[in-house]
Amino acid sequence: MPTTTVSSLLDTIDDVGRDPARGGYSRGVHTPAEATLREWFQAEAGRRGLAVETDRNGILWAWWDATGTREGALVTGSHLDSVPGGGAFDGPLGVASALVALDLLRERGVQPRRCLAVAVFPEEEGSRFGVSCLGSRLLTGTLDADHARSLKDADGTTFAEASRAAGIDPAHLGRDEEAIGRIGDFVELHVEQGRGLIDLDSAVAIGSTMLGHGRWRLSITGQGNHAGTTLMSDRADPMIAAAQVVLAARKIAAEQDGARATVGRLQPVPGGTNVIASRVDLWLDIRHEDDAVTATLIERIHGQAQKICAFEGCRATLTEESHSGTVHFDGALQRTLGNALARSFPGAPTLPTGAGHDAGILGSVAPTAMLFVRNPTGISHSPEEFVERDDADAGALALADVLEDLL
Ligand code: GLV
Ligand code: MN
Ligand code: MN
Ligand code: MN
Question: What range does the record give for the signal peptide (predicted)?
Answer without folding.
Answer: none
